[in-house]
Amino acid sequence: MEEPHDALENELNDLAGLLLANESLEAMLGHVAHIAVRAIPACDAAGVTLFERDQLTTAAASGPLVQRVDQHQYATDEGPCLESLRTGEVRRSPSLKADTRWPKFRPPTLDEGVVSCLSLPLVIGNHGTAGVLNLYSENRPFEEADEDIGRRFMAPASVAVANARAYAKAQAVIEQLQEALQSRDVIGQAKGIIEAREGCGPDEAFERLRDMSQHRNVKLRDLAKSVVESPEETLGG
Amino acid sequence: VTPTGELGIAELAEILVYERPLNGTAQHVVDLALESLAYCDGVGMKLVDREGQSAQRAHATTGTRSSDLDALQEALDEGPCVECLRTGELHLLDPVTADERWPDFAPLARRAGLTACLALPLVARGELIGVLNLYAWPTVGFAGWDRQHCSSFARHASIPLASAQAYGRTQVLLAELRARISATDDVVHQAHGVLMVTRNTSLDAAIIRLTELARTQGGTIEDAAQSVLDSVA
Asked: Scanning A7, A22, A181, B36, which has the fewest C-beta atoms within 10 Å of its C-beta?
């Protein structure tokens, strides 16, 4: 039988061994969550919350409980995950029942059967907190020993998440550019309209199109088409 | 295993592959090896790319002596580094067996002061991505490398290096796509868009307008388009 210490080393190795490949960001983060569940004794469920464009999303989770509890945090705007994100520090609640810190988050979370939680911030250099690894327990409390193990996860998990996110971003831009190449006529026209209206160059015009397409969740080609068909309505008077 | 050895491996897990170009990541890894592995006086690394992209190849060393020894092996097509790249396995040059195994490289290396060389394969997802060469030229007390620990370092190093290559491939593709997007025939479409705004007209009318412009200017449609774009820049 393996010593517990070696088992932890193996999990840390797995975490450090996450390789960038043609895997989605969510799949990568899913690995991180599952490794946490395996390595941290009290942990029954884990998920990764990402903070991007002022939006909180549970990008990966080991099970549906995580999404439900995370949702309580987002909805009540309080809880260990949000505090961890804002402060860049670890937040641990050994007994949620006895914890008075989050009066709005606590009742619905206790109803879900969660008894204890631990939130680990994912901090990348001096770029602030990119997300949080949230751990939930339905049985036993997260003790200091759990937190110690969790802390050893933070650096490699942060790096894995940062690398995966950079890779996913590059992939997303590649897809958009490929799409743009296929419909370069209408996108070129839309760029010209933006250039003339705003006195900017083609690269800047394309960046604007790309940003708008992401924000409005509209395909680049469709957005460009509506710019050409009705510029005022699409771009604003 | 020394504490610095553990530290080197932990630092490998903290490499952000998008922060610097592949060469920078390779350099960081050879520096870490030199710093954290016992009996290392110099380190060289060669990355190969199975997909054949020259941008994903890299060579990094901790100094001229190491890069000379890397170059010598390559020039002679002989030595532990060459063997490692050929077989995907670890190869050791030690003073006892060196001459017999590598008759050309060993004497030259010895003249350059080399005591030993350990070539470690860099393997990710079962694929050989390169080789890490450890060099020793101590004045006294070389006790040999802890092969297990050095192999472990190489195994851990392969992950950020392979990831850096994967990220590098996206950057090559991005540059290619960007160049194709800003190629000249895009200028014509843009000019149509500009004319729609400046002439307050429909797309069809703008297309006709640009052909007329080209005719009156006596140049190509691309020239006319460029002049339209310049007028709003």
From this structure: A22
